[in-house]
Amino acid sequence: MAKVKNRTNCCNLMLRLCRTRDTICDPPAKHYFSVRKANHLMLYAFARPFARLGLKYYFRRIDLAHLERIPKGVPVILAANHPTTFIEPCILACFQDNPLYFLARGDFFRSPFFARLLKGVHIVPIYRLHDAGFGGIKQNYESFEKSYQILAENRTLMILAEGRCIHEKRLRPIRKGTARIALGALTEKQLPEVYIVPIGANFTYADRLRSQVMLSCGKPMRASAYLDAYRRSEAGAIKQFTDDLRDRLRQEVIVVEDMADEPLVEYVHQLYRTEHYDEISKNGIHYERQQLRAEQRIADTINGLDPNTKERWNLLAHDYFSRLQQMRVTDEAFAGCYHSDATRSALVLLLALPVMLLLILHLPILLLVQWISGTKIKSIEFAGPVRWAASVFLYLVCSLVCLLVSLLTGAYQVFVLWLLAVISIPGIINYLETAWRWLLAWRVRRQPVHLLDYLSTQRQALLRMVSTAWLDPSVSKLNTPN
Questions:
Q1: What is the rounded distance in angstroms from the CA atom of residue 182 to the CA atom of residue 224?
Q2: Is the dihedral of CA 98, 99, 105, 106 positive or negative?
Q3: Between the N and C ends of the chain, which has fewer C-beta atoms within 10 Å?
Q4: Radius of gyration over alpha carbons of the chain, in Å?
Q5: What is the pLDDT of residues 12-41, one digit of tens each?
Q6: Cβ neighbour number for residue 456 with a 10 Å cutoff
Q7: Residues 125, 143: contact at Cβ < 8 Å?
Q8: What is the assigned CATH class of domain 38-256?
Q9: What is the distance of C-alpha 221 from the center of its chain?
Q10: pLDDT tens-digit readout, 268-298
């Protein structure tokens, strides 16, 4: 009896200790979680303005259409196509108001350092079978649960719905993960609604500095519309959801159905951009999609051409643009969009030496970025994003190093000199673009008159043939006299 009594007393003591431990330890655990979450928010908030500034310099023009279609204060999934590794998520994180959470490949999280860094900027790992095997796939249960929780907190989750990153002007098959997360969040977290906004990401030249990107938000889908079907048949509802999402996303993406037609589409796109140079040449952030819609119409028109007509377009366009390439000029330069008058020539020549001196300060970073993107990165999908991210990171590190050196040594001229170099970046970019346009215009002026006349005739014939491809049918009908 004494042994039983002692054992009972020991059990009671253990229970009291457990309760005491829970009472004492729970608050610090919650505090630790809140501190970790606060650190993540701080890192995201710290990185966002620098990324935004870097994007403004990296791209000549960013078109953001219908951002108002992204709901606020409710669970939202942004479902986008995937032409580059991470540029399109970064653009949306920087230029729309909702703080974003992202899904990214789980193999990026192998290093503990990078895992903490990626989690700090709201990235949730998702594992693929060919990257992580069956062991990695099991970890997706935790990733899905995190995604459900993000949506339950009325936050915005971005999913690159194609799954694979391939830079091409077409829409690849949509993976089922978007549907699973949206419908899973409704059922697991008992949410009244999850909104899915299809977003098309379109690049003129994704691997080139100072190119253009066009993002367009479609009308939101409601996940609740598929909930009854999901309860009857999960597979059927997920398939229908995915098919509908692909149809919505198709409306926001430039699609060239046959890969062999891509050169012809690009030729006609260049002609369109030249003919609308005054509007398209305006740099900066714009909230419109006229150019995107026109370039979509061009691709759709060429997709529907009969083989004979397509062959005629191809022959004439190839002859014209191949001759421009031999002259080392662009269609914009040949059409007279650029100028090389005496005033501009004098300005380019006078500023050449000061700009070259300023470029010396940037040379170490530029060479390092070029080495990273040129030798370490082999695919076009990674080249542009890595070049942009490396530039932002290195300029930020150099700024902090110069500041620390100035504070520790008292040599404040070091930081002032570096600050001058950073402030001069917009001016250097503007000068280099002006000088490049001046050079192209000068090359056109040096060509023989008979060649210029021949190319002018070819261009006019080509325009008569293809210009209807970018016309808006609704506008054409309105402008037709009764």
A1: 9
A2: negative
A3: C
A4: 28
A5: 433 333 333 333 333 333 333 344 455 556
A6: 12
A7: yes
A8: alpha beta
A9: 22
A10: 999 999 999 999 999 999 999 999 999 999 9
